[in-house]
Amino acid sequence: MSLLKKSKILAIAALALSTAGCQTACPLCEPIALFCHWQTPLDCRMTEDDPSCFPWYEALDDSCLTALVDQAACRNLDVRLAAAQSRAKALETLNHVTADVAKTYIELRMSQLQSNILQQQIGTQQCILNITEGLAKNGSLNVFDQSDQQISLDALFVQQSSLELAIKKASFHLATLLSYAPGDLCDSLCCQQDLPTLPCCFPVGTPAGTVCCQSCRRQSAMNQKKILCQLEERELALATFHAEAEKLGYQEQRRCLKSDAYQSILDLYHRGQKGDLDLLAAYQAYLLEESASIQSRGTLLIDYVNLFH
């Protein structure tokens, strides 16, 4: 028997053994079992309807965001380059760009709102410092207490610098996404505006619907990996939204309690039963919770965008 013929026989035998082993032990020959429902509990706003045609960014009811997305669809350079390749590539790229625009816009509005709150915190803390300085001069307050108030004020100024940078960064990135020079959109985006509003109801689909186009009977290893990664990303996005929604619920309770506490102290202040420091400290505590609430609301909105990206 020639060496060439022996090599062919060995190759055929190896192929037969690998095929037999795959049929009996390899899980890649079996289709992935898809659950009917997600493992993560759905938020009360979610449905398992097909989300493919849901206008998720328009549902946020923010005319400025909608205008930015519409401009990005026409002007973004990546979308235009992808359109020259294929329609499928253009749609995929547009989806990424739309999500980027939405998340950057949310970060911008979140930073602007927090900056507004921070200005009030700085003003309040400056008043507290002025009062403590007067009390320290009169010997009614420990010098270390006065020093703590100055440290708190300095920390707020540090936050202010960080927020100013975050606002510029978001504005510059939005301009780039819309193919403008960085800074061209600063004037149009500088107006104070609230965060977009989460829709009262939106679809997230089902596990089977998410991968229906790839859930064939015979799946390759690469295809199975893609399906599993899709399911993992989707489950994680749902779990992240669920966790942040719970966090926001608790945060809103804290904000309301601090608001009520401030109003109570304000009433006592008008009756002469509470002093300036008591009132300012209560207002500062309320502003802190207000800022945390803005952060949580913005994070939840970004989690919402990730559900459709």
Characterise the protein shown here:
With 309 residues, this protein is an all-alpha fold. The protein folds into two domains: 56-202, Outer membrane efflux proteins (OEP) (Up-down Bundle); 214-309. The protein is built from nine helices and two strands, in the order αβαααααβααα. It has helices at residues 3-24, 63-75, 77-83, 87-137, 143-177, 186-189, 207-210, 221-270, 276-307; strands at 46-47, 202-203. A two-stranded parallel sheet has the order 1-2. The longest helix has 51 residues, at 87-137. The model is unreliable at 19-25 (pLDDT under 50).
Task: Jot down its keywords.
single chain, 309 residues, mainly alpha, Outer membrane efflux proteins (OEP), 2 domains, two-stranded parallel sheet, 2 strands, 1% strand
User: Strand order of the main beta sheet, please?
Assistant: 1-2
Number of helix segments? 9
Write down the domain tally. 2
How big is the Rg? 29 Å
Shape: elongated
| CATH top level class name of the largest domain | Mainly Alpha
Count the strands? 2
CATH topology tier name of the largest domain? Outer membrane efflux proteins (OEP)
The SSE string, one letter per element, is HEHHHHHEHHH
